Amino acid sequence: MTRTDQFSDVPAGPRRTVLISGASIAGPALAFWLHRYGFAVTVVEKAGALRDGGYPIDVRGTALDVVRRMGILPRLRNAHIDLRRLTFLDEDGAEVASIAPHAVTGGIEGTDLEVRRGALAGALHAAVRDDVEFLFDDSIDTLDQHPRGVDVTFRGGGRRTFDLVIGADGLHSHTRGLVFGPEERFHRYLGYCFAGFTLPNTFGLVRETAMWNAPGRAAVLYAVGEGDDVHGFLNFARPEPSLRAFRDPEAQRDLVAEVFADAGWEVPGMLAALREADDLFFDVVSQIRMPRWSSGRVALVGDAAYAPSLLTGQGSSLALVGAYMLAGSLASEPDHIAAFAAYERDSRTFVTLNQDLVGTGDALLFPTTARALEERNTLLRDLVAMPPAAEGRPAHSALVLPEFTPAAALSSGRTDV
Question: Which residue, 173, 177, 333, 348, could crosslink 339 as a Cys pair with Cβ 3.0–4.6 Å?
Fold first, then answer.
């Protein structure tokens, strides 16, 4: 049975309309599944075009089943980075350990995927671009819910009404702010800030990562292939993030330079490259924890609802799985309130298990004290693989994807907010 045949029982007739805010990972994945279930989908994205390149991300566990069902797994296999070595260095630049990456990530060699973020976004977009409407260089300005739908005004001046609106617009979701209130209500800062950028590969690195650590500081050079550039990453512990730095890119550069001023190894050259980088990305390491992921006709998916942080390596995987679960719940429940409740009921345990991985990620990658760093280094010298989960499935595979049956009332069901 082909994917098209599986959805041939979706009834014809007027289709429910859905606006998705965000065209990175969760948004296009959700658009794919909603279209398959017979919804009319529009995706709005504030960027002028699809973002290419980007830092590497993982797809593993349950998320692999999602991309397999979407038919994009072969394309992602071709884009797999196949990182071969992860080398840890001490404060003097001496090697602590050089190990296989999956020994740290807890992934499965030969099965899990690591691809550039742009490669995943491109595969998702290609899978759905001919079937749904994309509005680039625009965003939601206001939302007004009422019994018949959601009136939306766009930054570009347009006005439209949709049956449902989904926020898939990331950690700092504008949609979440409009409907649920200020980010600080749900933002859980994990004690680190970071700067990411690209710089010339003058280090001879090929499909490998080198990580320098000092207490509370880390510098990473990441070569995803044999190209002329590498990804640079500077991470540092800080009790509270600098609000001024978030408003001013030059303040970001100044802050990072100050924190790493006395660092050795390749850090001085990284700081010089940081000054010239035109792709600087500065942010905090944090999570989003919400008591509910929906309100009326508006729901959230991916980082907008439950960002797990880079310490877990599960952000993109949660986005893919969440998109599948949300679309299936909407297809099988003609009442959107019941659908949103089912989405949360069936997904939250999986989300929480993955968010709770932060306790191991930060201790291994970013120790904050000299003692913790030495304990980490001792562990690395003897490390073959991460210890298995105490019982049951590992967090990234803890959910088995259900099969959803489209509800007979999909095309006509409408309920009040």
Answer: 333
- Pair 59, 120: CB distance under 8 Å: yes
How many residues are recorded in the chain? 417
Strands (E) across 326-411 are located at: none
Contact assessment for residue 409 and residue 331, using Cβ atoms and an 8 Å cutoff: no
- For residues 31 and 36, what is the distance between their CA atoms, to the nearest angstrom? 9
39: left (phi over 0), alpha (psi -120 to 50) or beta: beta
Residue (of 190, 172, 121, 178) closest to 154 by Cα position: 178
Residue 295 C-alpha from the chain's centroid: 22
DSSP labels for 50-95? PPPS--EEEE-THHHHHHHHHT-HHHHHHT-----EEEEE-TTS-E
Q: Provide the Cα torsion 266, 272, 277, 280; round to 10°.
A: 70
Measured CA to CA in angstroms, residue 201 lies from 93, 140, 226, 270 at distances of: 18, 39, 9, 11
Beta carbons within 8 Å of 104's beta carbon, 6+ residues apart: 86, 364, 365, 383, 386
Give the C-alpha separation, 374 to 386, whole Å.
18
CB atoms within 10 A of CB 3: 10
pLDDT digits (tens, 9 = 90+) for 218-233: 999 998 877 788 999 9
- Compute the distance between CA of residue 118 and CA of residue 51 in angstroms, rounded to an integer: 6
pTM above 0.85, yes or no: yes
Burial (0-12, 13-18, 19+ Cβ within 10 Å), 401: middle
Residues 6+ apart with CB under 8 A from 7: 36, 37, 38, 406
Confidence check: pLDDT of 336 > 90: yes
Q: Tell me the β-bridge partners of 19.
A: 42, 165
Tell me the two tokens of residue 283.
């942010």
* Angle (nearest 5°) at CA 56 between 53 and 57: 120
DSSP per position, 128-168: HTTTSEEEES--EEEEEEETTEEEEEETTS-EEEESEEEE-
pLDDT digits (tens, 9 = 90+) for 173-224: 999 999 999 999 999 999 999 999 999 999 988 888 999 999 999 999 998 8
**Sign of dihedral through CA atoms 106, 109, 115, 121?**
negative
